[in-house]
Design a protein that fits this description.
Organism: Brotonthovivens ammoniilytica
Keywords: DNA-binding, Transcription, Transcription regulation
Pfam families: HTH_18, PocR
Radius of gyration: 31 Å
Helix content: 55-70%
Protein name: PocR ligand-binding domain-containing protein
Number of strands: 5
Number of helices: 15
InterPro entries: Homeodomain-like_sf, HTH_AraC, PocR_dom
CATH topology of the largest domain: Beta-Lactamase
Order of helices and strands: HHEHHEEEHHEHHHHHHHHH
CATH architecture of the largest domain: 2-Layer Sandwich
Structural class: alpha+beta
Length: 361
């Protein structure tokens, strides 16, 4: 099944990409358009030359332009770099491939310029040869005049601009690809029917959505290392259950008393008294104890840095996390891990020695 991030309109945020494309066209003096793998435009043409605009208004000639875009993109992806070629009107065009995991999904097409040194044109491939296109040009004096208005660049300048666009496109696509991998992973790990905290993701900004998904994935990874009896808590007082669910499902957050009271639709003071009665200690002590317990398991079972564990458990400052851990366990997280590993090594050695003695008997 094809992943959603193989769709170019999912990789590029077109509302943001179009203004950037327009600005690049203005600065470089190139016409730029972005197409999918079939050569079909997914953006408006930026800086389109009047000659090319007129040509693309003709249904028959427009098909040849689209064929050039498609073929140029495919040639670019074969070489893995910008492909500079001649269109069916001997105009310079550049195809910059967009690929995800070696799968070609589209291209940034730039150009609509002539070469100031036409001898260089002999070294370039004319990607589509069309006598019909040339005949159409020869019949129109207006088109001939527009053709001569197309700007001319040296081949070296064209190559430099192609290289710059290639680097920029790769950077933007890599950034967007990371975002879409996260989105796709989220859909796999957290089916919509099972998620109670992301039912309104379309109503929030894309940045907020990605941040929420990263948090959810962090919680999922953390949960894999924790004892099953600490993954959830069942409250005798059912009115408090939303608070416990929220605490255990959001291990990477600094959950507050007020926040949990609101979730349970209770006043802060009443919630605090009820919570203490339920667990035998106040809210702050209970949450701190949980965080320390989770931290101990992560220190024992993973090689995550202390700072990473601190962040994954919702602490803004590693220093505060270390201070709280030491207050509870009378030892720093780093020393706790060290002693755990030493204890494991000694136990493993004794186990091996015992097994050896048994086998000798």
């Amino acid at each position: 099944m094809e992943h959603s991030f193989f769709q170019i309109d999912r990789i590029l945020n077109l509302e943001q990409w179009q203004p950037l494309q327009d600005a690049l066209s203005d600065v470089l003096g190139l016409a730029i358009i972005t197409v999918n793998y079939k050569g079909v435009p997914i953006t408006e043409h930026s800086g389109c030359q009047e000659f090319c605009r007129r040509v693309r208004e003709n249904p028959e000639l427009s098909k040849r332009c689209q064929k050039c875009d498609s073929r140029g993109g495919l040639e670019a992806v074969r070489s893995g770099e910008p492909y500079i070629y001649l269109c069916h009107y001997h105009i310079i065009d550049i195809a910059i491939p967009i690929s995800i995991d070696d799968k070609y999904i589209g291209a940034v097409m730039a150009g609509q310029v002539r070469l100031s040194n036409m001898q260089k044109a002999d070294d370039l491939e004319q990607i589509v040869d069309s006598p019909t296109s040339i005949a159409f040009l020869e019949r129109s004096k207006e088109l001939q005049d527009l053709y001569l208005q197309i700007p001319a660049y040296s081949y070296e300048d064209v190559k430099r601009m192609a290289g710059m666009l290639h680097l920029l496109s790769n950077y933007i696509v890599d950034e967007a690809k990371g975002k879409n991998y996260i989105l796709d992973m989220y859909k796999r790990v957290f089916p919509a029917a099972q998620s109670q905290y992301f039912q309104n993701t379309e109503a929030v900004s894309e940045t907020a959505q990605i941040h929420s998904i990263k948090e959810a994935l962090t919680n999922a990874i953390t949960d894999t290392y924790l004892s099953s009896d600490q993954v959830i808590y069942s409250s005798k007082n059912r009115s408090l259950q939303p608070a416990f669910d929220y605490i255990f499902l959001n291990k990477n957050k600094a959950v507050s008393l007020d926040e949990c009271a609101k979730l349970c639709h209770l006043s802060t003071s009443y919630f605090g008294r009820s919570f203490t009665k339920e667990v035998g200690e106040n809210f702050t002590s209970f949450v701190s104890g949980l965080k320390v317990s989770w931290a101990k398991q992560l220190l024992e079972k993973t090689d995550l840095p202390v700072a990473q564990i601190s962040e994954d458990l919702g602490f803004n400052e590693p220093g505060y996390f270390i201070k709280m851990f030491k207050k509870s366990e009378h030892i720093t997280p780093g020393l706790y891990r060290k002693y755990c590993k030493e204890r494991t090594s000694i136990t493993g050695f004794l186990d091996s020695s015992d097994n050896y003695k048994i086998s000798k008997k």
